[in-house]
């Protein structure tokens, strides 16, 4: 590799492990813009990691779940008083709804690892092998661009917001975003985002 320093190799490793600070990420982004060798090395590692994630999952032994459940201590079930349910039917319904929605969102966060362009799929290049979505130079995405389980590289223009879920946003020198940009890496942020999109009527999935 033409880059003779180990500094950026260390930053690349931290970025792939999602253990990099915001300041370090900005420094790495600037370096990747100008160093083709490091950029190719970075995306090659991302592709290897992606292939490893797509490999066959480890299968638990037969009756594993049953054996674990038998070892757990018995828990006494508590019933919600019928009087409280009759007295506050709206609150009860809202609580049940939030619990079900939270469970669905948590399951999606834990199991979802497939690159997905939720909105703004026009005028973008999708590269599943590297889990990357690119807005090419000279192209404009009308409206918000929402990407899950992948990185976004903005070389053109996004006429709206950019939301990257479980990924990173990279801006080229000529890239432009007219709205806000947001990266979501924590499950709490994910749940809040889903709830906000649902109650504002902007939920896409």
- Helix and strand composition category: alpha/beta
What is the domain tally? 3
> Spans with pLDDT under 50 lasting ≥5 residues?
none
Main β sheet profile: 4 strands, mixed
What would you call the shape?
globular
Compute the number of helices.
Answer: 7
Report helical residue fraction. 40-55%
For this structure, the quaternary state is: single chain
The strand count comes to 11
DSSP strand (E) fraction? Answer: 15-25%
Radius of gyration: 22 Å
Average of pLDDT: 78
**Helix and strand succession?**
HHHHHHEEEEEEEEEEEH
Widest β-sheet, arrangement of strands: 1-5-8-11
Q: How far is it from the N-terminal to the C-terminal residue, by CA?
A: 42 Å
Pfam families: zf-HC2
Transmembrane segments: 88-109
Protein name: Anti-sigma factor
Organism: Fictibacillus marinisediminis
Question: What does this molecule look like?
Answer:
With 205 residues, this protein is of the alpha/beta class. It has three domains: 7-53, no CATH class; 80-111; 116-199, no CATH class. It has helices at residues 7-16, 22-34, 36-53, 64-71, 82-87, 89-111, 187-199, and strands at 116-119, 125-127, 132-135, 140-142, 145-148, 151-154, 157-159, 162-165, 169-171, 176-177, 181-184. The strands form three sheets. Strands 1-5-8-11 form a four-stranded mixed β-sheet. It has a four-stranded mixed β-sheet with strand order 2-3-6-9, with no helix packed on it. The protein has a three-stranded parallel β-sheet with strand order 4-7-10, with no helix packed on it. Strand 2 and strand 3 form a beta hairpin. The longest helix is centred in the middle third of the chain and has 23 residues, at 89-111. The model has no long low-confidence stretch (mean pLDDT 78).
